[in-house]
Design goal:
- The protein is mainly α.
- The chain is about 55% helix and about 0% strand.
- Helix 1 crosses helix 2.
Length: about 80
């Protein structure tokens, strides 16, 4: 999954208008972001990739870019 595909998935699943540039922002800087979005995203990523993603690593992530790195590190 490319970063562009990842950001598209984030937008589709959360309804937030995020861009690749937004991926580096901290979650507290993303308008409309809340902890529920994180669980929605994790579920969608597992569905899309067909594999389990480490919840502890995702919870330690401070940005969408961090989650993308967790996702691609196991690929």
């Amino acid at each position: 999954m490319t970063i562009d595909q990842f950001v598209d998935l984030v937008g589709d699943e959360t309804g937030l208008p995020v861009t690749v540039d937004d991926a580096a922002l901290g979650f507290d800087q993303l308008p409309g972001w809340d902890s529920l979005q994180l669980l929605v995203l994790l579920t969608a990523l597992e569905r899309e990739t067909g594999r389990r993603i480490s919840l502890p690593q995702v919870l330690e992530s401070g940005s969408l870019a961090d989650i993308y790195h967790v996702l691609t590190a196991g690929a």
